Amino acid sequence: MVSIQIDTKSCTGCGLCVELCPLSVFDFAAPGGNSVPEVKRPEACCACMTCSGKCPQSAIRVAQSDPPKRWLDDESESPAVLLDQEEETRYKEYASVLDGILKLRWKPVAVTLIQQGEPFPHVPVPRVKLRYCQSLIMARRGKQILMPPSSHACPDGTSILGLTKIPPKLASGDIYIKLGKLASREAAQTLVNGRSTLPEESIRATLVTPLDDPVLRADIVVIIAPPETMMWLSMASTYFTGRRMNFQMGSYNAQCLETTVYPYTTREINLSLGCYGCRAISDLSDDLMFMGIPLEKMEQLIAGLTHLGRKAIPDARSKTYLPPLI
């Protein structure tokens, strides 16, 4: 549940919240502005925190309380098909090899996009609304998180992931301009129209879990790590082919688009630098990058990494080829 309070004594009526809210929660009591905005559509609020974060007077407070239910009632006739023992063991082996060779700081994350008509697994929804990127960051720390649209806090991300329709303000690109992220309507339209998205309302929920603690069959494996780790992962994926990789990145919609939807739709590994959104709402350090790997690519990647781990990786990390100082 979300509640919004406006401090009418601090508010100057600038109208920035009215302009920036992607879901048009706020409006002026009278046409023309110059008054304290009102919360006209509180039920539409997704707790993205754009209003409170951008208010120049810090006059807006958005609070969340526990959802009515943390375990979702499922109307599906059959229960979710959980991983069998063989698949679960394979995922855990992937995680073990990745950590054993690369010494990962954070757990790899298994992502499942639950389609409409598919049942929910017995995994709790979060206590508060989260952005998809926040759920990935929590899963890398060991959490299992199930998020239907009502648990998501980013309307841009939910529309890209196929959970919801895209709101008009985001479809037009106006918010990108107002936030100072792009120079013009033309640039914003190019960004919005050029990105891959899943069909509207085709996805019922996102499920993220640690790769070594899976629940359902993963669609994508996401790894959050420094550039040196990403170098070895890239080399491992091409160890048997020598094929150079072409990554799609634009520093917009990093986790939802670049590390999830793009690998999901193309079935190709993709690398991302992250975006202003996922860095602004998390404790991600500046040296971290993101990689999305389709599940079917994992077998070859792990095999390549195993070979690299015998000589190339230890040699490089021990600076074997560093010349003596003169």
From TrEMBL:
Supply the alphabetized keyword list. Iron, Iron-sulfur, Metal-binding
Q: Which residues form a coiled coil?
A: none
State what protein this is by name. 4Fe-4S ferredoxin-type domain-containing protein
- Asked if the keyword Lipid biosynthesis belongs to this entry, the reply reads no
Cited Pfam families: DUF169 (PF02596), Fer4 (PF00037)
Q: Which Gene3D superfamilies match?
A: 3.30.70.20
Gene Ontology MF terms in the entry:
iron-sulfur cluster binding; metal ion binding
Q: Which PANTHER family match?
A: BLL4979 PROTEIN, DUF169 DOMAIN-CONTAINING PROTEIN
Domain spans labelled 4Fe-4S ferredoxin-type = 2-31, 35-65
